Amino acid sequence: MERMTDKKKVQQVARDTRWIWKNLLLGVAFVLVLGILTAWALGLITRHGKIVKTPDFSSLTVQQAQKLAAASHVNVKVVDSVFVRRLSGGVVYRQQPKAGSTVKKGRSIFLTINSVVPRKVIMPNLFGYSVTEARSELRNRGLNLGRLNYVKDIATNNVLGQSCEGLEVKAGDQVVSGSIIDLMVGVGPQDNQTTIPKITGMKYVNAIDALQERFLNVGKVTFDQDIKTYADSMNAVVYKQDPAGAGRNLGANVSFYLTLDPSKLPAKK
Predict the structure, then answer these.
(1) Which residues contact 77 (CB under 8 A, 6 or more apart)?
(2) Lowest mean pLDDT segment, chosen from 119-123, 156-160, 208-212
(3) What are the angstrom distances between the C-alpha of 4 and each of 9, 12, 124?
């Protein structure tokens, strides 16, 4: 009987030991699962802290862009350069991703800066070209058409001279890329009329193109006060023009006003 009692005691101890280990393992598993779920939940709650908005680096120097990037928890890298005549040298011209984009902290923002040293191109000989042909040739060389100065001649809209900043520029001369080239153009007494296009709703560059296609000159250009950078001016649209229509002499001035506020645009009829 004593042997049977001892055997039962051993079996009871074994059962108790198994029960202890089983519950111990279950407790460890529960703690591990709870820890994983807690970490996952905290990750969801704090995820917003890992996302930032890309600041606007336009018109900043590289040093200024680096300081702003550090404060905004992103990095900047200069990857390219261009030469824009009306923009200060060494400042940011374009960025990718764009300002206001949502990115992760530490993301690299790629910058294109405006070159400090302007590139030079060879001035073509535009004498005898039509205004349309001359405008196309200038664009092919990285130059811009400026004013059309009309003088009496038997051939209307034929180029008789070319100048840059008030000085004659000859074929073969080196000029800075992006320079504005004014043309002296002939006009006959019977061919001195054109019509003014409607440019309201057009962006700055498109408005200039539309006027030049009708052999008109850009008069006074007025920007709203909230247009502060060159990039702003490129995105602005015309909301008013003067004069607004009818016929004019070739080379007449057309002034216009630009805005970034769509509410200023005239209602479509």
Answers:
(1) 108, 109, 110, 111
(2) 119-123
(3) 9, 12, 118
